[in-house]
Amino acid sequence: VPAVATEPRFAQRLRRCLEEQRLLDARYRLQGLPGGGVAVPVLQEEAAERWLRDSGPQGLPCWLLRLQDPVPSKAARVRPPAQQLRAELQRLLLALGQSWSEELERDVPRAWQRHGDLVLLGEDSFRAALWAKLGPALWETVASALGAQRVARRGRVLPDGMRSPSVTLLLGRDGWVQHVDNGIRYTFDVTKCMFSPGNITEKLRVASMQCSGEVLVDLYAGIGYFTLPYLVHAAAAFAHACEWNPHAVEALQRNLELNGVRDRCQIHAGDCRQLQLQDMADRVNLGLIPSSEEGWPVACRVLRKRTGGVLHIHHNVEALPVPPDRSDEWSLPEESGCDEQRERPEGMEGAGQAVLAARVRPQWWSWAEVAAARIRGLLAELHGQPWRTSILHIEAVKSYAPHVHHIVLDLECRPALP
C-alpha cells in the first residue's frame, strides 16, 4: 500500500495532517522503517503525491514509498462488517476521484442475509446513480469487505401465486446456496426460491414435536422448510410434500437427499388443490401466508377418517393497536415459542379449550374460533357425521406488516363420539 514516511518524532503530526486531508488509510498501522523512519499508510498515492508537492505538512521532512507487507490496524481487525463495508466503499470512490456524500451513506446497507459465500442485499441498497457507473468493481468491493464470493440483491416478491423472489445476481456464476438451520441443510437457488429467516422459531417448534409413527402431509412444502424438521427431528414416519413451484421442487429433492430422508418422503409436484390423497394423514401442515384457506378442504380430506389428526394452519391476522392499559399483557413477543399456560382473557370463557401460548391477542383467538368452526363444518359435510375441533395452541411467528402478525393455529380434529 502507498505510504508517506517521516522521522519518528514527526510521525503523529504527519498522521493528523493526513487525517485532515482525508488521505489516512486507517486499515493499517503506522510502520517503522529500517534506518529509523516511520511510514503512515495513505488511501491514494497520486493524491498524496500532489499534496506533498503542492503544500504538504510545513516543516516536516516527508517522502512517498510503498509498504510491501502492511500490518492491519487494531480498529480494522475489530471493525463491524457494516463499518468495514462503508470504509472500503469510501476508499474505492476516493481512488476513482469521486467524493463521498450523505446520499451514498444512506444507500449503503447496514444489514443483509448471508448464505454461505453469498450475501443477499436488500432491495433499497445501492440505488444511487453513481453506483451504476462503478461496474463490477462495486460488487467486488462489497464481496471483499463482507468476506463473500458472490453478491445478489433482493427485489419485490413476484405476484405469481408462488411467492417467487425477484433476485438479481450481481457477482458470481449461479445462485445456488446452502443454509443450515438447527442441523438441517437447505440448498436452493436464491434467484428462484424464497427463504425466510423469520420462520426459524416455527421450524424449531416443529422440530420439538413428537411425531413418531405419524404420516404428515405438507401442502405448501416449498424447499422443505417444515417437511425436513418433521422428518429429521420430529421423527415423522413418512411425509407427503406438495409443491407447485418447479424450482422449489428441484431444491426439495436435493434437500431430502442432503439430509438422508429421501426414502421417507413422496413429492407431489403441482397444485395441492388437485392432490389425490385421502384418509391417510395424522398431521397436516398448511404453511402458506397470508392465507392457506384454499387448502383447508384438501387438509380435511387427507385426515384419517376414523381417528382424525392435527392441522397446523398458518395465517396473517390483523390486530389493531392494544390499549395502553393492556399493552404489557398483549404485546407481541420478540421471540415467540413459549408454551406458558395463561388464563383466557375476558370474553374467552366458555370456549372449551385452554390456550397454550404466551400473550395471545383477542384478534388471534377470534380468528382461530372462526377457523375451527369452518374446519368443523367442512369435516362434517365431507364425512356425513359431526366432528369436534379443539384449539391446542396459537403460535406467534413474526410481525408481517404493521398490525399484521403471522400466526400458526394448532387445531385438533376428531370424529365426534356417537
Automatic annotation (TrEMBL):
Q: What class of enzyme is it?
A: transferase
Give the span(s) annotated as Disordered: 324-346
Q: Does the keyword Mitochondrion apply?
A: no
UniProt organism field: Penelope pileata
**What is this protein for, i.e. what is its function?**
S-adenosyl-L-methionine-dependent transferase that acts as a component of the wybutosine biosynthesis pathway. Wybutosine is a hyper modified guanosine with a tricyclic base found at the 3'-position adjacent to the anticodon of eukaryotic phenylalanine tRNA.
Q: Which reactions is this enzyme annotated as catalysing?
A: 4-demethylwyosine(37) in tRNA(Phe) + S-adenosyl-L-methionine = 4-demethyl-7-[(3S)-3-amino-3-carboxypropyl]wyosine(37) in tRNA(Phe) + S-methyl-5'-thioadenosine + H(+)
Query: Keyword Transferase, does the record have it?
Result: yes
UniProt keyword terms in alphabetical order: S-adenosyl-L-methionine, Transferase, tRNA processing
The protein in question is named tRNA wybutosine-synthesizing protein 2 homolog
Matching InterPro entries: MeTrfase_TRM5/TYW2, SAM-dependent_MTases_sf, TRM5-TYW2-like_MTfase, TRM5/TYW2-like_N, TYW2_N
CDD domains xrefs:
AdoMet_MTases
